[in-house]
Amino acid sequence: MQSPYSSSFLTMKPYPLLPFFFLLLSLSSLSFSSSSSSSSSFPINIWPKPTNISWPIPHSSPLCPSFTIHCSQTSHPHLSRAISRYTDLLLADHHQPLLPPSLPSSPHPISSLSISISNPSAPLHHAVDESYTLSIPLSGPAFLFASTPWGAIRGLESFSQLTWSADSQILVAAGIYISDRPLFPHRGLLLDTARNFFTVEDIMRTVRAMSYNKMNVLHWHITDSQSFPILLPSVPDLAIKGSYGPEMRYSPEDVRRIVDYAMSYGVRVMPEIDVPGHSGSWAEAYPEIVTCANQFWRPPNKPALAAEPATGQLNPLNPKTYRIVNNVFRDSANLFPEPFFHAGADEVNSPCWESDPSIAAFISAGGTLNQLLQTFITKTHPFLTSHLNRTAVYWEDIILGPAVKISPSAIPKETTILQTWNNGPNNTKILTSMGYRVIVSSWDFYYLDCGHGGWVGNDSEYDSLTPGGNGGSWCAPFKTWQRVYDYDITEGLTEEERRMVIGGEVAMWSEQVDGVVADGRIWPRTAAMAEALWSGNRGEDGQKRYGDATDRLNEWRHRMVGRGIAAEPIQPLWCARNPGMCNLVQ
């Protein structure tokens, strides 16, 4: 995969260079210098850091009170909404930086932003072109060029972050040119709404924050053993009986609203229906297709029936299982236009299946649990990929599971993507070397729930007063933003294997999270991954740039809070106002 640091605006796609010519004219009397993804900060910064910035002598210009955004593709529904949204934001946002820039200011205002798009019909699918170029002269109009509407939305976000309020006026960085594109096409956040419920507004607020950080995939983990909150037309009882209640369900209208809203922010919504494990909630409507449902998860003197409460897995031997699963998949695909469909397949529990009489008889006759899982995948994968025309996404367990797994030969690589979560770079290498496309979500770097302490009750571990330990969290310690930022998701891979990594996702599992606390648990740590996957975590010198990132992330968190995202602080405010003074090494 080509590094963004080796590219420049001269090697970008051939966008029209007229605005850049204007920019050069406006800077012709200045001594030219440039920065391309360097480790140094500018007086005002963009998060995630663009791949290429040229701002030879930083200036500011006032934003005209009648500032407008023009685009010839006004008929594009999602782009037109984005333009309206950013126009309102730019004229109403009174962001005051923690360290206000002191820049020479042009007396002439920036009057407008003109957008030109070469491929306005490009759909919001995986690997769509999100590149853009942005030029803001010292006066007059600014220009934004993009191949697609989705690249234009990324450029609009960059423009918005170059503005700030000072002396009762809105200023914007001037004399600046940016050419930008993401390093990885898949930059996602997994949001689990099955353990604890998130309202539609909670989800939409999360989508907004994702777009602010140029992330493009909401991995919606909708169902699990605890609840089945999505109301599906052909199997309504799954939600009516399996959700937490009428006020904790997503109607088809809710889902369509979320999907459409996300598209206007350039965010795809990938649904996950986790099967055949993690399916205890299905038993409320269809107990006959679920094994070990509603049992205590750790029976005395016996193996655990689940990785956590609650229990229940689909029975691959019951023909009715496939009728129900196909209905769920079909209805879900009708609600989610996204070509990727996540079908789970993680943490299949052997004792849960073995406790079922029909499966016990199957094993006694010489069958294996691996054969059971393969039967399930063989019957459901073609329905997803051929009948519903989706790319199937599974957790790595499907072929790397510690207890139950299937042969890699049973999973077509052309229609399948695997998502890693164990063993850091090791499992990523195993899967890419097999030829699978991979999404990286290693728990020891990207699980945001880790280190928050245990949540199961009646835990005798707390009887001890011995200091230390993991606080009951299986994946402790807490993943700091630096831990997230510093992870290189292609570490140790060959060039061929690197090309198989399509990106990564942080995961917000919700055992101890709901919409009340989600913002602080997700942000700004997720912003750290957003930059690492957009422009990398290293400067031109090849060194990690987390020192520079600390100051920039302090400021970016401040701006996010001003936009209604309750991101947690990463340092005392004193540190942000005294850059470098809180470093471990001077």
TrEMBL record:
Which reaction(s) does its UniProt entry say it catalyses? Hydrolysis of terminal non-reducing N-acetyl-D-hexosamine residues in N-acetyl-beta-D-hexosaminides
Domain of life the protein comes from: Eukaryota
Q: Where is the active site?
A: E347 (proton donor)
Signal sequence range: 1-33
- A Pfam family hit: Glyco_hydro_20
Q: Mind listing the GO molecular function terms for this protein?
A: beta-N-acetylhexosaminidase activity
What Enzyme Commission number(s) apply to this enzyme? Answer: 3.2.1.52
Question: What UniProt keywords are attached to this protein's entry?
Answer: Glycoprotein, Glycosidase, Hydrolase, Signal
Beta-hexosaminidase eukaryotic type N-terminal domain ranges (all copies): 46-162
Q: Does the keyword Signal apply?
A: yes
**Where is each Glycoside hydrolase family 20 catalytic domain found?**
184-536
Q: Which SUPFAM superfamilies match?
A: (Trans)glycosidases, beta-N-acetylhexosaminidase-like domain
Under the heading InterPro entries, the entry gives: Beta_hexosaminidase_sua/sub, GH, Glyco_hydro_20_cat, Hex-like_dom2, HEX_eukaryotic_N
* Family to which the UniProt record says this protein belongs: Belongs to the glycosyl hydrolase 20 family.
- Put simply, this protein is called Beta-hexosaminidase
Q: What species does this protein belong to?
A: Dendrobium thyrsiflorum
